[in-house]
Design a protein that fits this description.
Blueprint: H1 2-23, H2 35-167, H3 173-191
Helix pairs in contact: 1-2, 2-3
């Protein structure tokens, strides 16, 4: 602040001297009379320029250099931030592509598992259906044989009763058994 006041005082003196010189220009008649104010003005100018060069200009240049350095630093920081943002974007896009590829692989694996599971279920269903068919055939054959045996037994019983009525005699259980065995043997041979 003291320097500023001193600089202001010197400037005021220089301006005052210039006014005096201008006001006294009509009074000065010879060029030798104007040398003193001119030298005073030059000395004041040199002093003001010297003080400015020593104390004011370094501050102005320093402030400008500081501002330049700050702007340069901010530009460099902005460029670094842009590079980091670009790298982050590239990394994000790569991660996104990897995630999409992984999701596609998972979908394909799931589809393959579904196809395999469907094939297994189909095979299991066909196996169970075949087993049920075989069991049903076996049950039908067993029921058929049982029905045929019952039919043979009934037919033998009826034939025995009719033969007994025809013969008018009573057929014993042993006769009935022998007749039944003979009839079954004949039916089996006739069937073959």
């Amino acid at each position: 602040m003291k320097r500023f006041a001193f600089l202001l005082t010197l400037t005021t003196l220089a301006l005052f001297n210039a006014r005096v010189f201008a006001a006294d220009a009509s009074v000065i008649e010879s060029p030798k009379g104007g040398i003193a104010p001119m030298i005073t003005t030059i000395v004041v100018f040199v002093i003001v320029a010297g003080i400015s060069a020593v104390s004011i200009w370094p501050k102005i240049v320093g402030g400008l250099d500081e501002r330049n350095a700050k702007i340069t630093g901010e530009i460099a920081a902005a460029e670094d931030a842009r590079k980091q943002a670009k790298e982050a974007l590239n990394e994000y896009e790569k991660s996104l592509a990897d995630a999409r590829a992984e999701a596609q692989q998972m979908l394909e694996a799931t589809k393959a598992q579904q196809i395999e599971l469907a094939a297994q279920l189909k095979a299991t269903a066909e196996t169970e259906l075949t087993a049920m068919r075989e069991k049903a055939k076996a049950d039908i054959d067993a029921a058929k044989k049982q029905a045929l045996n019952e039919l043979y037994s009934e037919s033998i019983t009826l034939a025995t009763v009719m033969a007994g009525k025809i013969l008018q005699r009573e057929v014993t259980a042993g006769d009935q058994q022998r007749l039944m065995e003979d009839s079954l043997a004949e039916m089996k041979t006739a069937k073959s």
